[in-house]
Amino acid sequence: MERHVLITFPHPDDEAFGVAGTVIQYTRAGVPVTYACGTLGEMGRNMGNPFFATRETLPEIRKKELQEACRVMGIKDLRLLGLHDKTIEFEDEDEVADKIYRIIEDVRPSLIITFYPGFAVHPDHDAYGAAVIRAAMRLPEDQRPKIYCKAFSQNCEAYLGSPDIVNDVSDVFDQKLEAIKAHRSQTEGSLKEWIPKLTNNDPDLVEWIGKETFWIYKGPVAV
In this structure, are strands 165-168 and 211-216 parallel, antiparallel, or unpaired? Predict the structure, then answer.
């Protein structure tokens, strides 16, 4: 059993799709989980479906959605890093790592979950994952937590191999859906398409939601 889990992603809703089921399993087992979220996703393209947000109101809306998702997942410790959406790749990596390292020092996690740099599609994902790795590597080797990474670029398995961990979260399937639904401004459109498929037990969608995959970080990968 983990002592403390730190999940850290750049955008609100990154956690809901990729790790919400795993997080819910941890919190239900009494494991404390901290979420360090890099931005408020203020440059997100979606404004609700139908629209209920504007570019000016979206940051506060997404903050409240994130807080609700954390409530659903059982996360009581949410840290907001205050970075700007879609610009993390242009930030000084050491400065971003400084923010994350302070949280690592504070909560002393036994496990960190983040994106695998280079295999997470979005520039923010890759840059943020790299900063998380840099922060964790500042610890002496014998004090470093395990690092589980999310990867989903088309070529990820060619370079990383099959996932090291395939976690069945079907026991918290409905709760994971609630965490996804909490990010209403971003997920409402997708959910309208999902509901009929879930009603008919579409096997691909059910498996995608019901299984969460991770690679254990073992170091940089040549591509």
Answer: antiparallel
pLDDT at position 17: 95
pLDDT exceeds cutoff 80 at 120: yes
Query: In sequence order, what are the residues at sequence separation of 6 or more whose Cβ sits closer than 8 angstroms to the Cβ of residue 22?
Result: 113, 167, 169, 212
pLDDT 10s digits, 24-82: 999 999 999 999 999 999 998 888 888 888 889 999 999 999 999 999 999 999 999 99
Whether residue 95 contacts residue 129, with contact meaning beta carbons closer than 8 Å, is answered with no
Which domain CATH number covers 35? 3.40.50.10320
In a domain, 9, yes or no: yes
Indicate whether 221 belongs to any domain.
no
Question: What confidence score (pLDDT) does residue 219 get?
Answer: 85
Strand partners, 35: 7, 78
Whether the full predicted model's pTM is greater than 0.90, yes or no, is yes
DSSP 176: H
H or E segment at 212?
strand 211-216
**91: which 2 tokens?**
């930030």
Burial of residue 191, with CB atoms counted within 10 A of its CB: 0-12 exposed, 13-18 middle, 19 or more buried = middle
Say how far residue 205 (Cα) sits from the centre of its chain: 19
Q: How far apart are CA 149 and CA 153, in angstroms?
A: 12
C-beta separation of 150 from 136 below 8 A: no
